[in-house]
């Protein structure tokens, strides 16, 4: 399981653009994002942390899609654009793309909020200890 977690976190570690929920993740898990990524690759890391970072990567992609479509719409409607270049069909298509991107973003926000809502308060969470800190097994 540890190797799978490390592979997953290394894959999503590439998604380092700031997103709308970074401050929430840092507050809930009590550390800056760089430290959260480091924590997620260690054996015994919180499955909730790994899942939250995975959802963060998906959310980053969805937010990037929203921004790209918004920029295309703004460019099409720029004051310098000639009236002859305006066409409703491409704008309808961009509107559909924007709606799809917003639905995706909303889904990832809902999933992340649901995950964070099911976590116990940080004071109630047991501290994660490495296996070396557990007492040795009894010989019987």
Shape: elongated
Task: Please tell me the overall pLDDT.
Answer: 81
Total beta-strand segments: 0
Query: Main beta sheet: strand number and arrangement?
Result: none
Distance between the termini: 28 Å
Structural class: mainly alpha
Low-confidence stretches: none
- The domain tally reads 1
Q: How do the helices and strands follow one another from N- to C-terminus? A: HHHHH
**Helix tally?**
5
Features:
single chain, 140 residues, mainly alpha
Summarize the structure.
The chain is mainly alpha-helical.
Structural commentary:
This protein is an all-alpha fold. The protein has one domain (2-127). It has 5 helices and no strands. It starts with a helix and ends in a 22-residue tail after the last helix. The mean pLDDT is 81.
Furnish the topology, listing elements before pairings:
Blueprint (H helix, E strand, L loop, with lengths): L1 H11 L9 H8 L3 H8 L6 H30 L11 H31 L22
Helix pairs in contact: 1-4, 4-5
